[in-house]
Amino acid sequence: MNGGPSGFNNAPLTRTTVIATVLFTIIFGIRGRHRNLAWSHQDIFKKLQIWKLIVSVFGFSSTPELVFGIYLLYYFRVFERQIGSNKYSVFVVFSTTVSLVLEAIAQWLLKDPSLNILTSGPYGLIFSSFVPFYFDIPVSTRFRVFSLNFSDKTFIYLAGLQLLLSSWKRSMLPGICGILAGSLYRSNVFHTRRMKLPDFVAYFFSRLSWPSVGNTSPTVSPRNILGSAPSSASRHMQGNYPAPAPTSSMLEPPEDSIVTLVSMGFERNSARQALIRAGNDINAATNILLDPRTS
């Protein structure tokens, strides 16, 4: 299992996050100031060093954390491709903000000296992403090793576990807060899943990052990436998903679209049939595959 076609096609916000994370980690690492990335309750509420909140969101405090963190961020770009950059921006802002608030509350309540300074990095975003990963990404392959059952999702969980335990309590607390933030987003608290940022936000990130190397897949239209109104085919398929009349263009969906859906964890034949029913609209096909009424 991977996060889709190689590169950051249709994932400009993830690309920007990865670039910022690498740059912050390297810059502070070269200067030997990794400790400045971390923050504590006293830094924010007594010293009013608000800048540490922003810095700590991006820069990891060690190279191993950076390796596993970038791997997970890169894989989770599948969610930006699935829901579009606009709604994914809301998810990023919500999960990061709520996670930081929960960390501050936990520090204040626990009063544990070992938790005075937490590890830094986009823990909130990464571990929030494990919630939709668990519920929405199906298992595509299973295998056995020494009588133990594994799936293609196992490696992602192992990478997350390694990151969660990288600094023991100092990394476990941000990870747990991230999972709680992701759960709150999924439960649609304050109707966050309906929120949208202005279209120029997603457009800004798409212009900010350089183009991905490799083939560009036109599987998602710019209107859907920016969170605008879905296409007519998508609106048509969000109801009872009636099969449209077959045409020559619908008999065989584009290979790019099939590969994208397979990369999300769906079976190839199911992806192909969904694309045919959706008139080769990948957003509508995704809705069909995720709708339990059609399974």
Describe, in plain words, how this protein is organized in 3D.
By secondary structure, the protein is mainly alpha-helical. 59% of the residues lie in helices and 4% in strands. The protein has 16 helices and 4 strands. It has helices at 12-30, 41-45, 51-58, 63-75, 77-83, 85-110, 123-136, 154-164, 169-186, 199-208, 222-225, 232-237, 248-251, 255-263, 268-277, 282-290, and strands spanning 39-40, 117-118, 142-145, 148-151. The strands form 2 sheets. Strands 1-2 form a two-stranded antiparallel ribbon. A two-stranded antiparallel sheet has the order 3-4. A hairpin with a 2-residue loop joins strand 3 (142-145) and strand 4 (148-151). Helix 4 (63-75) runs antiparallel to helix 8 (154-164) and helix 14 crosses helix 15 (268-277). The longest helix has 26 residues, at 85-110. The two termini are 21 Å apart.
Secondary structure layout:
Elements (H helix, E strand, L loop, with lengths): L11 H19 L8 E2 H5 L5 H8 L4 H13 L1 H7 L1 H26 L6 E2 L4 H14 L5 E4 L2 E4 L2 H11 L4 H18 L12 H10 L13 H4 L6 H6 L10 H4 L3 H9 L4 H10 L4 H9 L5
Antiparallel strand pairs: 1-2, 3-4
